[in-house]
Amino acid sequence: MDPILAEVYSTVLPAAPFVIGAYVGIWIALAAYVFVLARRSKRTERDFDALRQALANREEKLEH
Amino acid sequence: MADRMPGNEHRPSKFAQYRALLAKDLRQEIRTREMLTSMVVYALLVLTVYGAALSQVGDRVQVVAFAGGMLWALIVFTSLLGLNRSFAHETESGCLEGILLAPVDRSVIFLAKATSNLVFLTVVELICVPLFFIFFLSGAELAPTTPMIVLPLVVGTVGVAGVGTLLSTMTIDTRGRDVLLAILLIPVIFPLLYACVSACSVAFVGVEGTFGTFWTSLAVAAAYDVIMVAAAWGLYEFVVEG
Amino acid sequence: MTYKANQRPLDALVPVALVLGVALVIVGVVWTFTLAPLVQGAELSEPVVIAGQQVTTKLLLSQKIFYLHVPVAVSSFAVMAFAAFWSIRLLMTGDRAFDVRAKTAMEVTLVFVAATMISGDLWTCFEWGVWWVWEPRLTTYFILTLLVIGYFILRNAIEDPERRARFSAVFCIVAFVDAPISFLITRLVPSSIHPVVFRTDSGLPPMMLIPFLLGLFGMLLMAFALTRIALAINARAAEVEELKARLEEQDAQAQRAAAQEALDRLRAAGVRVSDSASSAHTPEVVGSNPDSERSVAAPDSPSKEV
User: Fold this and answer.
1) Residue C283 in this model has a pLDDT that exceeds 70
2) Phi/psi zone of residue C287: left (φ > 0), alpha (ψ -120 to 50 degrees), beta?
3) How far is Cα B165 from Cα B168, in angstroms, rounded to an integer?
């Protein structure tokens, strides 16, 4: 490559990992939160079903 | 709380309430001197740590350049201790509930508490700043503008007392209250700290053209005080309810 | 007092907002890397002609980070504004539904602040060559990070839900007022050590402005969608916690009632024993002190019947 052009773009390659890292980092932060939310949602549904079950059992016992 | 008689028909004026609460705090402290002594001793210990930290610095480094920062670090650490202690005896003896039962306006409680904290901090600073000079700036060439550090010290202490009163009221009853106060106070106080350190540094070094920075920093710190202390005052009633 | 996921018409917009937001961001990013011109850096030793234009400086790739970094930063502050708004509403009305909303908004703020810190730190790292500089932008965002983390630590330290809601609301408002002050102060007070380099991105040419705006609106929409989704999940979790607490309270009450009943029966039995025992048996038999809570029948007393 023409040496001047090489100098013009000289910072591009060293910068690339940082740029990629920044973009990936942003997406990782967002994805991590989505993951946490999904897990919380699953746990909440599980708890809700268990509670409903417990309530149903209790009502049965009362009827006896 | 002998001056709060239950059968009192006329509610005293706000200023009278303020004066009574403030007097109670000051009287308590003058009688026991517990908090002031611990704060002064703590400040001495911090200075000792500084001594160890700077022991290898040698003659070539100008301590004056970062004296402003060191002084303010000392003030912040001592304030953290003082803010917690100022509430400690009240929660222990159930005083706070007593005050809340009386028909006192919540914002008056804030003013009284903040003022007493300010007074205590000022007293401690009056002792510690000269000590700081003795320990670390004895041999240094101090600029003639050094006395100007009084201005940022005053402005900064007002801010720390105001915001610190609100935050320490929130943290007294929690687990790990000292650490929690530090975690909350330091980020909130950071802009003020930054501005005051800048102003003090300029005053210490005293180079001719830099005083624009001094006045800018001071103005900015004063703006911080106005805004944040007003916010703390307004929010205080939500923090003191039973 | 509870928040139902499908109550508000706003929620119909959520999937649309999410898709649109992601789409906008992707378009913005692609544009950034293809059509937007590179920004100028250090001087070249001699000028050169590229694509018919004279170029006198090196061209920087690292500036591309700006296209997503600033939108993420702005979004974090926008979401925090909502957190502060809901905190104010909580203090005004005392309705705990606002606490769930404020907490959710602060969670999303934390995520976006983390994204800002990561991208900002990587950008600064490349430009200055060091991992951290106390320059205005990074410092302000670091303080904001500490404030948001402090919010969650405060929440964790308070047991009583009502106090927790109130105190976190107060701190959220304080933090929200503090953040712009921090921003302004670090810029207005010049630091005598580091020369502060201001990235004056004023007057972006259209080729650069459009991907930036795409990224900005895309991120804002994503933040909105994420907040709404998180709100639905958190509200549900709060409901479940409340139900659990109520069931536990019922259980505790039932247990206490059963225990009280048993104690009463024991006492009644004990009284009967003492009447018959006072004539014949030794005084250590139960019932000699019918008022004492500890009057449990002695194991060898034959008339003990529970």
Assistant:
1) no
2) left
3) 5
Q: Which residues of C touch A15 (CB under 8 A)?
A: 60-62, 126
From the list C91, C171, C186, the residue facing B194 with the nearest CB is C186
Q: Do A40 and C69 touch (CB under 8 A)?
A: no
What the block records as the tokens of C211 is 């991907």
Residues 5-44 of A with CB under 8 A from C: 5, 7-12, 14-16, 18-19, 21-23, 25-26, 28-30, 32-34, 37, 40-41, 43-44
Other residues' Cβ atoms within 10 Å of the Cβ of residue C211: 25
Q: Is B61 at the interface with chain C, CB within 8 A?
A: no
Distance from C144 to chain A by nearest Cα, in Å? Answer: 16
Q: Are B98 and B59 in contact (CB under 8 A)?
A: no
**Residue C40: beta bridge partners?**
C59
Taking the CB of residue B4, how many other CB atoms lie within 10 A of it?
17
How many structural domains compose chain C? 1
Q: How many CB atoms lie within 10 A of CB B214?
A: 21
Backbone angles phi and psi of C53, in degrees to 5: -120, 145
- Comparison of pLDDT for C146 and B64, the residue scoring more: C146
Per CB-CB distance under 8 Å, the chain A contacts of C59 are 8-9, 11-12
- The answer to the question of residue A48 being in a domain is yes
Query: Residue C59 in 3-state DSSP?
Result: strand
**Beta strands C53-60; C39-50: pairing state:** antiparallel
Residues in chain B, pLDDT under 70: 1-12, 59-60, 88-103, 241-242
| Dist. CA C79–CA C77, nearest whole Å | 5
Supply the CATH number for residue C236's domain: 1.20.120
The continuous run of DSSP H or E covering C301 comes out as none
* pLDDT tens figures, C69-126: 888 888 899 999 999 999 999 999 888 889 999 999 999 999 999 999 888 888 877 7
The answer to whether residue A17 sits within a structural domain is no
| Residue A55 falls inside a structural domain | yes
Q: Tens digits of per-residue pLDDT, B150-168? A: 999 999 999 999 999 999 9
Domain region containing C47: 2-248
Residue C280 is given by DSSP the state: H
Phi and psi for C46 in degrees, rounded to 5? -150, 150
ipTM of the complex: 0.86
Angle C206-C63-C117 from CA coordinates, rounded to 5° = 120
